[in-house]
Design brief:
Elements: H1 3-8, E1 21-26, H2 33-44, E2 48-50, H3 51-61, H4 64-74, H5 81-91, E3 100-104, H6 110-119, E4 130-135, H7 138-146, E5 148-151, E6 157-159, E7 178-179, H8 186-208, E8 213-217, H9 222-238
Parallel strand pairs: 1-3, 1-4, 2-3, 4-8
Antiparallel strand pairs: 5-6, 5-7
Helix pairs in contact: 2-9, 3-4, 3-5, 5-6
């Protein structure tokens, strides 16, 4: 999905006064959360808050949290929930989140979700955080990820199953060689799914048990998924929490 196509296929009607508020996009690896987050950002002018970006930013700036995280990462250890939570809290103190934002990669664990539920009222959140789960069959996810090929020059992305190049292994645009990312293998996908099932699937069930949750079909075309997400958000905002 290019930025041009995102501009021409807006997920909501132009001129809308609807603002989505704080949004959590959920889903397994490969469902398209990043693509949908970009569309929501473009449509509503709200930031995408990525824990990966926050972590890298804190390390680059040499903050106390960044130093603590880097020391653990250099030892090959996971950054604990408390440090990640504190980084998210600092990011949510910024002024650009008042109309809403999209959480990306957080909460990743049930403990983080519980912390978020407890702390968001402290941040003065109105309306409350709502969650949309993008659902795609695991077999389809495997095809999406293992079939992905990228041009080594122009970076155009193909899929050998759903969007293959005219000539196998060669970019249609500039004739350059296509490559497969090292983590786009079946073995790597299996490991990512294992981590997702043990850590993140309980987060989905946590929000499913609330009245702040909707689910959309992620197997549809990108623009249709975007429309479904906006419809889900409007439905959630019309509900009483």
């Amino acid at each position: 999905m290019t930025s041009d196509s995102a501009a021409h296929h807006s997920p909501a009607q132009a001129g809308t006064t609807f603002l989505p508020g704080p949004v959590l996009l959920l889903g397994a690896p490969g469902v398209g959360k990043g693509t949908q987050a970009q569309l929501l950002m473009a449509e509503f002018g709200i930031p995408q808050i990525s824990t990966g970006d926050i972590l890298r930013g804190n390390i680059a700036r040499g903050t106390e949290l960044g130093k603590a995280a880097k020391e653990l990462m250099d030892k090959g250890q996971l950054v604990p929930d408390q440090i990640v939570n504190d980084m998210v809290q600092a990011r949510l103190d910024n002024d650009d989140v008042h109309a809403g934002y999209i959480l990306d990669g957080f909460p990743r664990t049930l403990a983080q979700a519980t912390w978020l539920d407890t702390h968001l009222p402290i941040f003065g959140e109105t309306p409350p955080l709502v969650a949309v789960n993008i659902r795609v069959d695991e077999a389809e996810l495997l095809r999406r990820i293992t079939g992905r090929r990228t041009c080594t020059v122009c970076k155009h992305i193909y899929n050998i199953y759903s969007h293959p190049p005219v000539k196998p292994g060669v970019c249609d645009i500039d004739g350059s060689t296509l490559s497969q990312r090292s983590d786009d293998t079946e073995a790597a996908f299996a490991e990512r799914m294992k981590a997702y099932v043990s850590l993140t699937a309980p987060v989905i069930e946590h929000y499913r048990a609330s009245n702040r949750f909707r689910e959309v079909d992620g197997a549809a075309p990108v623009e249709e998924v975007a429309e479904s997400i906006v419809s889900a958000l409007k439905s959630l905002r019309q509900s009483k929490h």
